[in-house]
Amino acid sequence: MKCLLLRFAACITFLASLAFTSQAEVPPIYLIGAPQAWNIYDGSMPLEYKDNGYYGAYYIAEGTSYAEGMCPGFRFYSELGDWQRDTYGCQIDDSPVDYGALDAERKFDLVRGKGIFQFSEWPDGMMYMYVEGYYGYLYSVTLSPFPISAGCDDLPADSGADFRLEVGDGCVTVTSDGNAVIDFVSATGAVAKRVSVTAGTTTVDLTPGFYVVAGQKIFVR
Q1: Which UniProt keywords apply (predicted)?
Q2: What's the CA gap between 83 and 85, in Å, rounded?
Q3: Is 95 in a helix, a strand, or coil?
Q4: 78-90 mean pLDDT
């Protein structure tokens, strides 16, 4: 009975927060783990809130390890600066759970705890993340080596034109054989820039970072 009352209270708190807090006011959550050297004060890997979830995508190297294991391990925090509070992991206990390979989109439960998501067969590359819930009430995370459909806006219909990309410093050069509308989707899943190009070469200025363009992952320096 006590457990049911606690769950009911949590739901009421969650619904109240939805009613009185706008999406624009929702702060990010943070990936904390081997990819950022297990620094509880380092907010360099945030997941931003958008459309009922938190989105992020980061390059994670094969050799970012937890303890002695040569594989990435991490959990999530809704606040920085305190190891014991505001932490969400795969279990309550402060220990890793090895999920092996991540070669497709996979969904995991999140609990208030310090269990570490670990992937011993991660080759390295971009890892895409979508955490469901609201600030202070997170309940699942989807991880994938490919852009997550829930986190990306729809790309425009294929116009039939073929194009290729050449990435430069702060820009991308698009060479197209016809008219096309191209979306540059950021790591948060939002369309950072939409451009219309004609046959020939077009230079697009972009803020440095990772983008997805028609399913292709690029990094702008």
Answers
A1: Signal
A2: 6
A3: coil
A4: 95
